[in-house]
Amino acid sequence: xxxxxxxxxxxxxxxxxxxxxxxxxxxxxxxxxxxxxxxxxxxxxxxxxxxxxxxxxxxxxxxxxxxxxxxxxxxxxxxxxxxxxxxxxxxxxxxxxxxxxxxx
Length: 104
Description:
- With about 100 residues, the chain is an all-beta fold.
- Helices cover about 0% and strands about 45% of the residues.
- The strands form two sheets. The chain has a three-stranded antiparallel sheet, with no helix packed on it. Strands 4-5-6 form a three-stranded antiparallel sheet, with no helix packed on it.
- Strand 2 and strand 3 (about 25-35) form a beta hairpin.
- The protein is globular.
């Protein structure tokens, strides 16, 4: 696990949009229901805003248009910069049109 790493993801076990932090151990910070099952062959548009210790994520299932939104402010946040990456856990996953840009 990374030091001070944040993860925003679709959780396949509970079909949730989740946020967590890895700092030598995994800490589950919050989750909201996706509204549809996260399963193989489903495409989601995931948009994330990370600004300092504030995180906002929206996941929209493309076939149905069902959308989930999660906001979180980490009061224990100390790291204000880092890198961006993608990762899979518990579900075969593909990414396309992956873009990183500065928040306005």
